[in-house]
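G.,

No rush on this.
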Amino acid sequence: MQSTRLAAGLRGADKLARIPVQVDRSVPSPPRPTWLRARDPGTPAVRALQSVLRAQRLHTVCEEAACPNIGECFASGTATFMILGAICTRRCPFCDVAHGRPAPPDPEEPAHLAATVAAMGLRHVVLTSVDRDDLRDGGAAHFAACIDALRAVSTDLAIEVLTPDFRGRAEAALAVLAGAPPDVFNHNIETVPRLYRAVRPGADYLGSLQLLVDAARTLPQVPTKSGLMLGLGERDDEVVSVMRDLRAHGCRILTLGQYLPPSRDHLPVRRYVTPEAFESLRGIGLALGFDEVAAGPLVRSSYHAEQVAGAAARVAAR
């Protein structure tokens, strides 16, 4: 399918040329197993939704990050909206979002977003964003403006946010969101501590854990959620250790999915985790006390977000 991504910025090898740990392109990913297949993204339903998004000048992480579930999600009329533009201030080597100098936040974006969500008839919407280290509040005020705009068009809409780490600005960012609270607060831990410098340059493992515990304290009625990519070289015992850390920091919902490199310039896959292994990790997570764990090769942070949040809410209500 022809790309519809609008962002102009550095991608691939150009984007990753200045990261602290260079990608070893001499190590190829192993062949993709036959059981790991996503739905064809080039359907009429997908193209129709892309036309709506372009008309409203909106971005989705589904397109910008080359998500393998775009065909399934767009065909069902759902999308994860990426606010604050499509240019990121960081250069993570697992991610396909463009790097560069972002434009100022679009003041019309909240209204465009609300109109689109209303037209789609969504019951649960996910808002994420690029890292905006150029903004004093990391983009928190724009998140709040989008939440307010969505609440204005539907009081029944469930709003999930998947935020960046608000590096050095987390306290102020959470104070802003306390005035416009979402229904789920998600921030991805992404990988195990040993791999952070290679996978998440510019991020901090303990800082991400602190953001989650601060969010749980600042927004006590809002469940916190996080996710990991598997297949980057982590061991299962390291994954379980991160799961324990997340629970110790109040995280209630977890997603586990297979890392898939967007291109040959990105970090290679070190292993493909089988569906059976994902199911085993899900069982461990539930035993640790997560309200819900979504685990599988194609699971992503916002994959089936409405169903995952509903399952977690039913557990929490017991």
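When you get to it, here's the other one too:
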Amino acid sequence: MKIYVDFDDCICETARAFSMLAVEMFNKNVPYEAINFFDLDKSFDLNEEEFERFMLRGHQPEVLLSYEETPGASEVINEWISCGHQVSIITGRPFSAYEPSRKWLDDHGLKDVSLYCLNKYGRDSFIKDSDFSLELEDYYKMEFDFAVEDSPKAFKFFDHLPDLKVMVFDRPWNRKYELKSPNYTRCFDWNNIRNKVAEFIR
């Protein structure tokens, strides 16, 4: 099986870290459970200049390396790999974040996963003229049987795979999202994801 896994808020707790960062940088206290929008400028009520500074800070290597692992992520992913499944981490982070992201994976025992930086959210990002290691035309040539993703904005990248089973990692910003087909399953933790994938494989 070929499995797509998103990075932020699927295998690491990025939004929880950003919640603390918003307090540190702007004295804006928005608890994790109150992050109701995937667009963090909206969730944290940041203007364009503040949002750019916020995202640049959140993607500094030392900050990226500090993100906590989502409980169970590396354990389940390594189980899949040990069973012969191919796991690819497809992140919307720009390629400038590749090295610390790769180090984070290695440090958390995920040396055997591939990492790709895909332009999921548009090139006009907080890092101007961002580079990405995976272009959309090449991504669309890839095939996956399962996906683990938290962002409704990324679901459009699955439309070309009608049989793909998508595990929607439950997060505050996607709870109002209506799952678009029976192939989409809401999952609440990595044990839930493990069990659902196992059901499909059986």
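The chain has a mean pLDDT of 93. The helical segments are 14-26, 40-43, 48-58, 61-64, 73-82, 98-107, 136-139, 190-201.

Enjoy the weekend,
O.
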